[in-house]
Amino acid sequence: MEIIEALEFCKKYSEKLNIPFYELRGDDILQKIIISENGEIKDITTNTEIGVGCRIIRNTASGYSYTNNLSKICLKNMIIKANKVAIIALKYTKKRFSFNSTKIEKKHIQKNIKKHPKNADIDYKKDLLIRTYNSAIEINKKKPLIAANYGERFGFKYFLNSEGISICWEPILTSIKVRVDFKSKGVVGGDEEYGGSFGLERYEKNYSPEEIGKNAMQYGIDRLNAKSTITDKYNVFIGNELTGYIAHETFGHLAESDEIITGSSLLKNLQGKRFASDKVNIVDQGVIYSKNYPGVYLPYDDEGVKTKKTIIVENGILKKKLHNRQTAKYFKEELTGNARAINYKYPPICRMSNTFFSPGELKKEEGMELVKNGIYAKSATGGCMSLDGTFILKVDKAYIIKNGEIEHPLKNIIITGNTKDFLNKIIGVCDDFTVLSSCFGGCGKAGQGPLPVGNGGPHLICKNIMIGGEK
Amino acid sequence: VEKEQLNKINSIDDLISIADSIMNKTLGYGADETEVFMYNSKSIWCDLSAGMAKVIDGESFGVSIRAISGKKTGFSSISSNSIDKINKTAKQAVESAKRTLENKKFKNLAMPIKRQSKSGIFDEKITELDSSFLLQQANKLIKETKSFKNIKHVWGSITTDNDVFVVVNSNNIAGGDKSTYIDANILCDAEKNDEKKTGIEKITSRSYVELENFGRIASQRATVALGSQKIKNPEIYDVIFDNYTSIFLTFLLGPNICATAVQKGKSLFENKINKKITSNKLTIIDDTDMKEGLKTMKYDHEGIPPKKKKIIEKGILKNFVYDSYSANIENIKSTGNALRLHKEPYMIPPIPYPINYLIKPGNKDLDGIIKQTKKGILVRYMLMPGIRPGQNPSDFALVAMSPYLIENYEIKCSLYPVAIVGEFNNVLNNIIDVGSDLKLVRGGKIPSLKIRGLKCFNAT
């Protein structure tokens, strides 16, 4: 049975069982990764994810089941199981509230992609990687290990429910990532990635494989020559990528309403109050209408709700939270379209889509001048946060700034702090803007990861930020 | 393969016979060699957080195919039991192989090796647990927290898994294994004035365990941690990681002892066999015979029986871990360490990785180590990693979420989160004590560790 047929069968069967509220989701997604090392294509891996899931809600209790066996007997078992566990779950549910109502839509949504990866020959994609290598090796012939990967992810996501919503939309993601590793007192390296919900034409027009390769090599060389720094407070110029990490990792998770309902998020009871410096505006948006930086394309969430632009922080004031249909009902707020599941094996939970700082008015040069002496922290390789606002970000591209000029690269530094303190130390926001996404990583929450998200924003200027270094 | 066969997957033998048919089909599509990996998982997850119950109860199946054409490799996977779709996936793997470049280092897919190996525990009782029972248990743990007045928020979840995998290849490999797991977690927040501390208790086991006192233990841990102070900022301390947090060591060692990483020049330990890489306090075995070990398996994910071996002996590096690809490069036998480290293991090709770390215990428990520490920081229960294993492997950074200050050989007070930063090589060379308190975790069995002279500062 094909997915659509399977979902229609499940719908009829759920109605036959008189299930009051059900949701059915189906995935048919293909992900391809091309792996190259030192300019040679080593492997091509293809993953096809096909399956269906069913969520049955009884009051606030949720029962979920899934299968990738699309035989009638297995589909029936899935519905029966989801219904049974929802009834059991109801016994243990104390907080009882229903769903916020949403617009009933029946749509098939497709983003307009000029050069869709499904139509491009594999040799063209292989060539993109070889071009990154040729350009990287041109500026350094010391024979580092250059690993360049190309990723694409596309297909169909289906949603229908007992209210009559019926949505099919086509996710799309492409990315190229290059990592350069040198052997020097251990192994050190740098990387560069460009990706998002766009077609292959962007690798010609916006950020070419040659530039990606060259920049990855430069970051690797920088790391080779990097020096340690003293643990202390610094003025910090924050690059676009790291701004994205901050929006997502240090702030965004706190704004997810399922964490606020539990009472654990730092943002509990702070709506309408000042949370950050007045320079700060943070937004979550499912579809970004930017020619250059579309981030990840999410027209609908996994509850069939149309995504929108949600201004979470406006001029430093905490304005809104990110909702699924249940949390919106609980807080009596409007829907934001932030219920997402990594695939058909999981029910949706509150998740971000594209989360970013809005651009300000400063030119980058003015921002650098404002920092004067401090650290330019461009991007992070990892980060973690706790719901009390404690966070750690491992900065992988960092430089000392002296008299408004970049001086030398730094190694092994971290930014730690508390989200609220940190956001209050932002004294300026630049007018540049990027939002990117990736096929090679994403967000993790409640065992559901990596979920593709879009991160980014402008350069930020922060005062007195705690930076941990080896000295 | 008949459709009916795929709808009735009951045993390893059933799966092997289906995998055999897919293998033959793939050879028919033009592969010179091929490997078929199949995985079936039944899982129940029950969560009771903030008065809301959620249950997931499902079953999934996946197949992956590695195809070899000359010395070229291709990989394709699918989460479906549709015969047409699996055949298409097999074709895709062959086509992918034909489109890659020849890998001169590739010799062949795994060849059979005769070696004694053991399965881990498979507990039928876990397979019989249903969501009703698991929710009841989760509710019991949460009720235990009620008598603690400072506990404000509680999360509890219990998961059971019942998994089976098989792998066959055209070099006469045919093997598989099955496993059961139960995983219980309880977290609670204690609050007083403006301070909030989280307590945790968790267990992962292959066999059923009575979940008594978990709620009480987590509540006590959160409550005791209230009243935090700050340390002098920044300063060098001896740091003791308890047997919950010392797991960081296994995460960071893994990519460095993986033979593929060594061969690519991405390991800190290249050319270091029989050389000192850590303090002489550290001895680590890859204990593939550990029945209770969470990754113990009769065959690895290429169908090779895993071999028990020393990794580090008194600080000297003894062995790397190999899959067949990396072993062939050095003309040695695979150590049976090919693992597909993914929630859905069929979705990725295997890489060499340790099965179960066993860190040789010392002779003092955690209290004994504290009693020999004049000034230090004790990292307990939870930490936030600041590094991604495998990237810039010499870096080391983390935040201890529930640390304690040790002064004059005893715990003085709890601390606000503390950040620790340094170089991983220094961490390894400054392990000055190893606890006797082995704890079973996802990576193996690990004790508390004491590390001399790490840079610490207040994270908030």
List key phrases describing it.
heterodimer, A: 471 residues, alpha+beta, eight-stranded mixed sheet, six-stranded mixed sheet, 25 strands, globular, B: 460 residues, six-stranded antiparallel sheet, 11 helices, 21 strands, 22% helix, disordered N terminus
Note down, in words, how this protein is organized.
The complex is a heterodimer of chains A (471) and B (460). The N and C termini of chain A lie far apart (62 Å). With 471 residues, chain A is α+β, with helices and mostly antiparallel strands. In chain A, α1 (3-16) crosses α2 and α3 runs parallel beside α5 (209-224). Chain A is globular and about 70 Å long. In chain A, the strands form 5 sheets. In chain A, strands 1, 2, 3, 4, 5, 6, 7 and 8 form an 8-stranded mixed beta sheet that branches. Chain A has a 6-stranded mixed beta sheet with strand order 12-11-10-15-24-21. In chain A, strands 9-16-17-19-25 form a 5-stranded mixed beta barrel. Chain A is built from 10 helices and 25 strands. In chain B, 22% of the residues lie in helices and 37% in strands. In chain B, strands 3-2-1-4-5-6 form a 6-stranded antiparallel beta sheet. Chain B has a 6-stranded mixed beta sheet with strand order 10-9-8-13-20-19, with no helix packed on it. Chain B has a 5-stranded mixed barrel with strand order 7-14-15-17-21. In chain B, α2 (12-28) packs across α3 (83-99). The longest helix of chain B is centred in the first third of the chain and has 17 residues, at 12-28. The radius of gyration of chain B is 24 Å and the shape is globular. The model of chain B is unreliable at 1-5 (pLDDT under 50).
